[in-house]
Design a protein that fits this description.
The protein has 91 residues and is an alpha+beta fold. Helices cover 40% and strands 30% of the residues. The two termini are 20 Å apart. The protein has three helices and four strands; from the N terminus they run βαββααβ. Strands 2-3-1-4 form a four-stranded antiparallel beta sheet. The protein has helices at residues 12-26, 56-63, 66-78; strands at 2-6, 32-39, 46-53, 79-84. It is globular, with a radius of gyration of 13 Å.
Length: 91
């Protein structure tokens, strides 16, 4: 999960346009179970990417994929902050 706050003056639509490209490409990846962008109901400048992977190896491969290396730096420029959390199911 990654939760980001957009910089003041950044249009949400600009961020979403880039993020949609990332979502579309990521969903094609082997090992991706779920990958979706969610907007905070009370503050549209807070956007969260929720993702689920078959294992940590698939996540690592995703993080090195061509589309991540191309798009994520562009998204980073539009955010003032980011919080990234990686979870494992408790069994």
């Amino acid at each position: 999960m990654s939760k980001g706050k957009l910089k003041a003056g950044v249009k949400v639509e600009d961020y979403v346009m880039l993020a949609k490209e990332l979502v579309a490409e990521t969903r094609k990846e082997k090992g991706c179970l779920a990958y979706a962008l969610h907007g905070e109901i009370n503050d549209p400048t807070i956007l969260t990417m929720l993702e689920e992977w078959v294992d940590e190896e698939a996540l690592e491969q995703h993080n090195q994929s061509k589309h991540v290396l191309k798009i994520v730096p562009e998204l980073r420029k539009l955010r003032e902050s980011i919080e990234v959390n990686v979870y494992r199911e408790v069994k």
